[in-house]
Amino acid sequence: MADGKQRNRGVCPPDGGWGWMVVLSCFMVTVCTRAVTRCISIFFLEFQAEFGADYSATAWIHSLVDCTTMLCAPVGSLVSNRWSCRVSVVAGGLLSSCGLLLSSFSSSLVVLYFSMGALTGLGFALCYTPSIAMVGCYFKQRKALAYGVALSGSGIGIFVLAPVVQLFIELYSWRGALLVLSAFVANLCVCGALLRPITLLEEEEEENMKEVAGDRSQGNVLTPAATDISKEPSLQLLEETPPTQVPRRRCFNSCFLSSKEYRFLLLPDFVFFAVSLVFMASGCSIPFVYLVPYALSSGVSHQHAAFLMSILGIIDIVGNITVGWLTDRRCVKPYRLACYSFAIAMEGLCCLLVPLLHSFPLLVPFAVLYGYFDGAYVALIPVVTSDVVGAPYLSSALGVVYFLHAIPYLLSPPIGGWLVDITQSYSATFFLSSATLLASAIILFTAVTVRNWCRHSRGQKAQDPPPEPV
């Protein structure tokens, strides 16, 4: 009995130990999901030749995989919260591997839309969010560095997988290459097995505090938290004890959507963060889609244009790791949100200058800067999310955060292409990317400024002496 109690006790994030195996698992999950998704475009010419389709029809496969992965991110959070991250990732690995396996036998683009776009995308969604959330459970002091290393799998995977997949297509045709990818993606099940569950000390203490607060509320006694006016409104929302619910609502919450897990949606900080995410997601993917076509239209050779993407992938890794290490420093840690906003703003400024760059030597600095700041903000997204909502809500919050990426990822590339068709130039497309990225940074900067001003005003009012009676 004593051993059982010891096993259920919460622990502090170890900041190492088995946590590095969790980082390795998340790294491989990123390779098997995000990198494989980016490599799907390599099959486009084969699909066009096989099914007699045009580029726009085959491009929907990539858009559907990306959109489904992000759109179903809350499903991954829900499964991991109800059972465990290990169950979610193993199930997602089986589902995505089966999706690629079925795709190798497809006879039409419609079948590919379902097998690769929907089935594989759903499997990736079950893997991506829970694995990222698990890294946040094992790290606290070195959280940003751990995320930087884990999420660098996307850049490394693109750099390594792209030529390998092209080689498999040449050796075994596109169907054989998809079979090999199906076997490779099945390694997600191994990644899920490495995600050892952990109970954090903060979660256990929070549950005890809520039970005490519930007992006091039944006795019509106000808790100190309810009368403390010096606390932030966002903290009050998370600490309020919900009123007694009717059985029907309790059943609904336990079966589908727990109000406890999603109370962070009412936080003003998270609302501003979510709005900025929509703008950011609308602009961040456009350069990856249109950099090579723009370089080719500017007279850059095919080899140099492809090398620009390699530069983006390599420098993306450098941004992941260096910014993760930097923002873990004690002097920088309080300014993680500012660093995140700065990275997005710099991406917007880089896109603003693209129409002035008409040669390979001029486009190389753009690829370096954009790749670095892209890696920086990608590594900071889960860290900033944790800072905004708190560690107990990280899994559910990440599901919502990546869900907000879905529709922009689906619509922004076609809108960018439409602008190219209308204007016969790539300038408007890159200006659109710049405008949305700068708008995202401005929203965050405004939110932080207003919050700090409100805190300063409340602090002054609390210090002012009460007026003397007349």
Q: Could you characterize the architecture of this molecule?
A:
This protein has 470 residues and is mainly α. 78% of the residues lie in helices and 0% in strands. The longest helix is centred in the C-terminal third of the chain and has 37 residues. The termini are far apart.
What percentage of residues falls in helices of 4 or more residues?
over 70%
What does the overall shape look like? globular
Content-based structural category: mainly alpha
User: How many helix segments?
Assistant: 22
Which whole number gives the mean pLDDT?
77
Rg over alpha carbons = 24 Å
Provide the low-confidence segments as ranges: 1-8, 203-258
Taking the alpha carbons of the first and last residues, their distance comes to: 67 Å
Major sheet description: none
Kindly estimate the percentage of residues that lie in beta strands according to DSSP: under 5%
Order of helices and strands: HHHHHHHHHHHHHHHHHHHHHH
The beta-strand count equals 0
